[in-house]
Specification:
heterodimer; A: Fumarate Reductase Iron-sulfur Protein, Chain B, domain 2; 33% helix; B: alpha/beta; Elongation Factor Tu (Ef-tu), domain 3; seven-stranded antiparallel sheet; seven-stranded mixed sheet; 9 helices; 30% helix
Chain lengths: 468, 281
């Protein structure tokens, strides 16, 4: 059995100096070779693991046959953002986990092949003229992150007239402000969003639904249904002494400054960021890895990632952990912050920590970290980044009482993804999804249900022949 | 793109713009703010909405040229454009009839207090407005303040107009003479803190509008976090108004100094080579 083709990547010492992509992508030959490993199962298990239901063996077959044009067509039937998914999806926990090849050797590299196909299309296919017949029915999508874009794309393909409302000045949501350039370059994201614009989707920026316009305003303007994908907000903090000292950032702030606002190009760009020498990141998820690797690229001499369990329990993808370690990020496991210390001007200078040990498993099934008393020690830090997770964005739910939320603040949706407000659907972070692909899956399911809802509820049912 | 409909110079470094922003003009209420970004390379800064004209679809912003972005903003003229304006953000001021209200404002906060006193006066309150400026030339909007207050009292640091001294001197006098239900303060942090300390002694409910550093302004990044009653609050979505007596002022002052070094560098660069950034549509 031939070996899985490894994703080519740049040398750690070179790549941790700049913001260019770490993974450079398969060559055509590599993609074809890898694609030929696919067994083309009659009942493909991989598809079960894909939240957006891509015909995985289908597009891989086309790569093996060198029909890249057809490969992208198969991919795009289900996935509006293949270049994104090929880069950021945790395939090892999804499609690739189910691959039969994985039982005896390594699963087929579905993510790498998806990325290859999307990148090939971006450089070889010009956006085709929009041939979708519009049904003239207006739908509003709130938020241009992965959930909103997926929902918008699917509905546009069905002929709906889609407007996406975004509160920031640019599209993409977390794909833009959160995920760094070295994992998902802006031009790749732009190209992906341009293909959505080519479907006729309109974008309105600087529009915070709930404040700039209300949901009622949208219905008054003739929108027949609304999808809310407003994303996460309100970063979590530790609730410990000194966490408002200067140069202690939430990961969202740190990454937004660098990614969305280009603070790494200060002073050419106006938004500043402090480039720390000794940076400490707290957390063990993908956002923690992104923050640590970004800090390294901003020139930090030392970047320490502090986590209260061990590497095995970290929620971050194995690939991200591996990349971080290769790039010189130091992992300090079984350690929790106790308090922060600052200089006389209120700028953080150190973090007091305590060692932990793993006790009995908790509700999540992971072993619960328990403090070892008296094991306190100090870590020098002139920048601290807190990557502790997020709460759902509170703005819209707090302004529209009929949009009920659960005890965590997530919008309550039914099995059809509809909120408590008739005709208003939701998905992604704001409704309890937590990863990019989960958000995309929810956006996709919501789109199907919105289509069904509109067919039933409005006077002129959309023409099903537009369905692709 | 948001067109500048008119520009007025209120004092040597304070300017007023009417900007075309129909959605914001329609939904904005007193006490709310916008985040704006001048151009592709610009930073996002919060500015309080100083007034709206829903009929003409415009909002008014009044700003003091204090750093790079505000100075660059001041170079724009009628007919030019601001790339991004997002709003209205934050909770509006709660407007109800509660009796006698003292509104204290200093510096550019004078502009920010205007829509608040307008609404409070309309709601039937007695509104005593106290404004402070360093000198007479820096005093802005006197006529509009007078029009929207039951009584207007002015303090200047140098005594060139009104009472010589600080707004707190006048406030102490007012407190000694009549029963005040609520004090509303907006302006530089030292002023708000001084007002807060004074009203705390007299046990008078006091609201302040905070203006910490922000990035997105929609509750996503946590840059604007302030400590109120010991708890972390986000000025952009929980505020911008808070109970003055519960604000951790020292922490706010410290957090406002976070990027001082960088702000100075950016401003110096700008003064020496102000790039031409075309604000045409």
């Amino acid at each position: 059995m031939p070996q899985r083709i490894k994703m080519p990547e740049r040398h750690p010492e070179e790549r941790n100096q700049d913001f260019k992509q770490v993974n450079t992508g398969y060559t055509q030959e590599q993609a074809e070779t890898e694609a030929r490993r696919c067994l083309q199962c009659k009942k493909p298990l991989c598809v079960q693991g894909c939240p957006v239901e891509i015909n995985i063996p289908g597009f891989i077959k086309q790569i093996a046959d060198k029909n890249f044009n057809k490969a992208i067509t198969v991919l795009k039937e289900k996935n509006n953002l293949p270049a994104v998914c090929g880069r950021v999806c945790p395939q090892e926990n999804q499609c690739e986990k189910f691959c039969i090849l994985g039982k005896k050797s390594e699963p087929i590299a579905i993510g790498n092949l998806e990325r290859f196909t999307a990148d090939w299309a971006a450089s070889n296919i010009k956006d085709e003229k929009n041939t979708i017949k519009s049904n003239g029915i207006k739908i509003a999508v709130v938020g241009s992150g992965p959930a909103g874009l997926t929902c918008a794309g699917d509905l546009a393909k069905l002929g709906y007239d889609i407007t996406v409302f975004e509160s920031l000045h640019d599209s993409g949501g977390v794909l833009r402000y959160g995920i760094p350039e070295f994992r998902l370059p802006c031009d790749v994201l732009d190209a992906e969003i341009n293909t959505l614009k080519a479907l006729g989707i309109k974008f309105v920026f600087n529009c915070l639904i709930g404040r700039t316009k209300t949901i009622q305003d949208l219905f008054d303007e003739g929108f027949k249904s609304v999808f809310i994908g407003a994303g996460a907000g309100l970063p979590s903090f530790l609730n410990i002494e000194g966490e408002n000292y200067n140069n202690i950032y939430s990961a969202n702030e740190f990454l937004s400054r660098v990614n969305l606002m280009s603070a790494f190009k200060f002073p050419d760009f106006d938004t500043p960021i402090h480039r720390g020498k000794n940076v400490v990141v707290i957390g063990g998820g993908n956002t923690a890895m992104d923050s640590a690797r970004t800090a390294k690229r901003l020139g930090a001499q030392s970047v320490k990632l502090v986590y209260r369990r061990t590497q095995q329990e970290m929620p971050a993808r194995l690939e991200e952990r591996k990349h971080a370690l290769e790039e010189g990020i130091e992992f300090i496991e079984l350690t929790a912050p106790v308090k922060f210390l600052a200089d006389e001007k209120g700028f953080v200078k150190a973090m007091e920590c305590v060692k932990m040990e793993l006790g009995a498993p908790d509700a999540s099934g992971r072993r619960k970290p328990v403090e070892i008393s008296g094991s306190n020690f100090l870590i020098d830090a002139d920048v601290v980044i807190l990557a502790l997770g997020l709460h759902p964005n509170p703005v819209l739910p707090s302004l529209v009482k009929s949009l009920e939320t659960d005890s965590h603040g997530y919008l309550i949706i039914d099995e059809k993804f509809m909120t408590k407000l008739n005709g208003v659907f939701a998905g992604g972070d704001i409704a309890g999804g937590s990863t990019v692909i989960e958000a995309m899956g929810m956006g996709k399911q919501a789109a199907k249900n919105m289509h069904a809802f509109l067919k039933e509820h409005i006077h002129h049912p959309p023409d099903d022949s537009a369905e692709g | 793109m948001f067109k500048i409909i008119s520009k007025k110079i209120l004092s040597s470094n304070i300017k007023s713009f009417e900007i075309s922003a129909p959605d914001i003009a329609k939904n904005a209420k007193a006490g709310q703010f916008v985040i704006l970004r001048l151009h592709e390379k610009g930073e996002r800064i919060p500015l309080t909405i100083a007034g709206t004209d829903a009929v003409n679809g415009t909002i008014r912003i009044i700003f003091q040229e204090a750093g790079k972005t505000t100075t660059e903003l001041g170079t724009l003229n009628e007919g030019q454009y601001i790339r991004d304006v997002l709003g209205p953000l934050g909770h509006p001021t709660e407007i109800k009839n509660c009796g006698t209200i003292v509104a204290v404002a200093g510096g550019v906060g004078t502009a920010e207090v205007l829509p608040v006193i307008k609404s409070l006066l309309k709601a039937g309150n007695k509104v005593i407005t106290i404004v402070g400026a360093r000198n007479k030339d820096l005093l802005i909007l006197e006529d509009e303040l007078k029009e929207n207050s039951s009584q207007l009292l002015i303090a200047t640091d140098d005594g060139s107009y009104g009472v010589k001294g600080f707004v707190t001197n006048i406030l102490a006098d007012v407190i000694s003479k009549e029963k005040i239900n609520i004090v509303y303060a907006i302006g530089p942090v030292p002023m708000m803190k001084a007002v807060s300390n004074m009203t705390k002694e007299h046990n008078i409910e006091t609201l302040v509008s905070l203006n910490p550093i922000m990035v997105d302004g929609t509750g996503m990044c946590g840059a604007c976090r302030v400590r109120v009653n010991g708890k972390i609050k986000f000025a952009c979505v929980d505020g911008p108004e808070f109970d003055a007596h519960k604000v951790n002022w020292d922490e706010l002052v410290s957090r406002l100094s976070l990027f001082k070094k960088y702000e100075a560098e950016s401003f110096e660069n700008f003064k020496h080579n102000p790039e031409c950034k075309c604000h045409k549509e």
